[in-house]
Amino acid sequence: MKIAVSEFTEGARQAKGLVVIIDVFRAFSVECYAVDAGAAKIIATGDINEAFELKKQCRQAVLAGERDERKIEGFDFGNSPTEIIKANLTGKTFIHTTTAGTNGLVHARNADTVLTGSFVNAAAVAKYIKNANPDLVTLVAMGYRARVSAEEDLLCAEYIKSLIKGTDSDIKTKLPDLRFTSGKRFFLYENIDHSPPTDFFLCTTTDKFNFVLRARVRTDQNIDLERIDN
Asked: How many other C-beta atoms lie within 10 A of the C-beta of residue 53?
């Protein structure tokens, strides 16, 4: 099994084989918490207007997402797991759009299979990959706003790769240091309303959920995410 690592939207466009689109802070952590909060369905889209159109079509739908890290006007939730863990999403369709993560899903059209990736379900992702045993795995670290390399996404890729190969990893000892690098924005007073410190800790909890989210392209070209338990 060959394992490649790439970055950003262009990396998602070019990714082949079994592809994992990684967005730790915060898209794919949020989606796992949304499933845990009872969401019956998750639809990812790269476009705000598409999100509003999807809500018109779906009964009991909620809108979640961000631009510039802040909740989009007219949306029910931002892109904060702290918000999601306090919500009752039982039976809801969770329509989600973000700057990096969901755009990565939309552009990963050359892949055989697409999964989301984050620390909260990294072990489940690695187990799924080992069971599938593909010839090629591409781990796509989406980065900050899909433009700047993000330590947390590259660390998550490293962690998933180590779990697949069964090699030792000291990733968990590195996670606390993220609060002084790419995660420091969660500890700035001016960000507390939309990116609180609790988001950092919820997103850096490893292997909390024993399921993966597998993407399927819809007829409208948005993405359904299916929960698959390991």
From this structure: 15
Which runs of consecutive H residues, i.e. helices, occur in 15-100?
Answer: 27-36, 48-57, 81-84
* pLDDT tens per residue across span 138-150: 999 999 999 999 9
In degrees, to the nearest 5, what angle opens at C-alpha 25 toward C-alphas 203 and 216?
95
Sheet holding 93-97, edge to edge: 2-7, 136-141, 17-22, 111-117, 211-217, 223-229, 41-44, 93-97, 61-67, 70-71
* Cβ pair 120, 29 in contact under 8 A: yes
Assign 172 a pLDDT band (cuts: 50, 70, 90).
confident
> Residue 52 is encoded by which pair of tokens?
């509003």
Listed in sequence order, the residues at least 6 apart from 55 whose beta carbon sits closer than 8 Å to its beta carbon are: 61, 62, 63, 95
Q: Given a cut of 90, is residue 161 above it in pLDDT?
A: yes
Check residue 143 and give left, alpha or beta (phi > 0: left; psi -120 to 50: alpha).
Answer: left
Nearest in space to 214 (alpha carbons), one of 201, 203, 223, 205: 223
CATH superfamily assigned to domain 2-218: ComB-like (3.90.1560.10)
pLDDT, one tens digit per residue, over 48-65 is 999 999 999 998 999 999
* Angle separating helix axes 122-132 and 151-165, nearest 10 degrees: 40
**Pairing mode, strands 136-141 and 17-22:** parallel
For the full predicted model, state whether its pTM sits above 0.70: yes
Amino acid 171: pLDDT = 87
